[in-house]
TrEMBL record:
It comes from Quisquiliibacterium transsilvanicum. It is found in: Cell inner membrane. This is Type II secretion system protein H. The chain crosses the membrane at residues 12-33. InterPro entries: N_methyl_site, Pilin-like, T2SS_GspH. Its main location: membrane. It comes from the Bacteria. The lineage of its organism: Bacteria, Pseudomonadati, Pseudomonadota, Betaproteobacteria, Burkholderiales.
Length: 184
């Protein structure tokens, strides 16, 4: 039977070398981890937006009533879903009666732009309850885009087509998991 030697273990020099190697690995991995986290925040915001736009469409059909979706852009961005044609101001408390999402929930992500075509739409649209289509107040079909981006210029775009379908893509391919957006 063999006995453990009295000197078994690490010396102080070996311990310090191991800690130095660990520190170097940590310092080199930290920037890529922060980049990963920033990209994941954009993905989370985009996936939530996609789900909410589909939800707004289903609410319009289920309730057989017009539902409006309106956006506020910039660093203090938000969007709101509202029952009725009047729209809502998502920055004002209790203005949107179905749902409000604040950009504060997605640190480092902003809505760079929200633009919709149509005779009276700029930063939002309505959903026709009979067909689930994206329309303006004159019931004219509307298309549009919402661009979510982080401080690293990684972005995801939500495209809303005239029949109300939503598609997510990455304009420059910087966010994995989404196809690269077609040229507009």
């Amino acid at each position: 039977m063999r006995r453990a030697s009295v000197g078994a273990g690490f010396t102080l020099v070996e311990f310090l070398v191991a800690m130095a190697v660990l520190a170097i690995v940590s310092v080199t991995a930290l920037p890529s981890f922060e980049d990963f986290r920033a990209r994941q925040r954009v993905r989370a915001a985009a996936d939530n937006l996609y789900t909410d736009l589909q939800y707004a469409r289903s609410e319009a059909v289920q309730r057989n009533a017009v539902v409006s979706v309106d956006f506020g852009t910039g660093t203090a961005w938000c969007y709101g879903i509202h029952l009725g044609a009047g729209g809502c101001d998502c920055a004002t408390a209790n203005s949107c009666n179905i749902k409000v999402v604040s950009g504060a929930d997605y640190r480092g992500v902003q809505v760079s732009s929200a633009a919709f075509t149509g005779s009276d739409t700029e930063t939002g649209y309505q959903i026709d309850p009979r067909r689930g289509q994206s329309v303006d107040s004159a019931n004219t079909p509307v298309t549009g885009t919402v661009l979510l981006a982080n401080q690293n210029s990684q972005s995801v775009r939500a495209d809303v087509n005239a029949i109300g379908r939503v598609r997510l893509c990455s304009p420059d391919g910087t966010v994995p998991g989404y196809p690269t957006c077609p040229e507009e």
